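All the exercises in this workshop are built on plain-text protein records. The record below serves as our worked example for the rest of this section.
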Amino acid sequence: MKLSVITAASIFLLSFSSHATMTLNSISGDSNRDLSDPAKPIIYAGFTPAVACTGDGSFTCDSCTGTSAGGKLFSCNRTSAYPNLRLVIQMTSTNTTGTVYAKIGEDDVSSTLPWTFDSGVLTFQATWAEICQAAGVGNCDSSMNKDLVVGINTTSGGSATTDSMTFRLNTRVAAADGSDSLYTDCNTAPVAANQGFCHFNVFPGDEKLYVENMVYSDGYPASPAPGVEFRSVVFFYEPFVTDDNTTIASISNASSMFELPVNRSANPPIVDDRVDGLVNGQRYCMVMANMDMTGVISHFTPIPGSSGSPVTAAELCGTPAAVVGLLDDKSCFIATAAFGSQMAPEVESFREFRNKFLLPSKWGKAFVKFYYKHSPYYANLIAESEVAKAAVRAALWPLLLFARASVALGFWTAFALLSLGGVTIYGLYRRLILGRRFRGEL
């Protein structure tokens, strides 16, 4: 009995030691990867069979530049995998001799490409077609969510051991019939059949467009493929030509693209909703799509007027413009009238407060948009009066102190200090001013 326990413990320690000695060097031939868990790295591959996309076998290809029978907007991948693309994994082991093996479940992976193990360095390579066949998904015709074990068998002193590493293979194959190319606009309520984000509208900013009123589907961030989640939303856009509908119709997968990462762990998901780098005074129209962890871009905005789409051109188009006001990115009355320069440090403090505390929050963003919309009229009135400028300058100093304190100490700390200061001043006022009046000293 004691011998059996010792033997079992030895086998356990040997197994643990063997797994611990294998380290990952590199991966190539994938669309994306997640190495946050060293015990089981995730390898992602996205396939787009509806679009011709081939390469030299060493690098992914861009299927967004191709054409599709479904029209100008179709599911694509800028780092697309394809059947003859080679997945290459290199690892290092403290063992120096052994035979390379690879398994998906109980099935061996067979490859026409050489596997090597030299001086402790293991190189595994196989085409995705060979990997998909071992996983039972044909010629990468279906999505996959499987474990791939790659390692070496060693024999020493008559005993056999293994040293290996496990990888999670998560692949998504976009629908060949284009059924995942468009979403059904969900407006203010999710649509059960939808995937990803399924509604937005444009709001103009300074050298940017905001995407607001975004709605996501039930189950977000899960994508149609098991084990694959959506990671971001992307916007394809074109500058104005003739009219909004014509401009929208000109947008394709090859148009300029802007990716907005999504904080998927937040509830609801948080999107940095600014499409930057645009030209003031130039009108733009945009459509949205969803990008998943494999790089597949799908579920685009339905074009207005197509297939009974409820989306209107006005929702998708906007004109960036300089904004006059306290929170403007460029010149504003507060810079010229109160502090003398648009680059004054006081103005920079207001900008920093806006970026750090207002724009990241829903209520702050609503305030900024309300202010942008209504401030120009009052800014023009103030700019015409020196008395008004002086009054505004005086009124802004407390706000400036609060903004600087918030940036340096945190919003709530600054708020607590401000509240304490207000109570203290009011107490002194009651004691020194009102008290003296009550006693007839004033």
Observations:
- The chain has a mean pLDDT of 81.
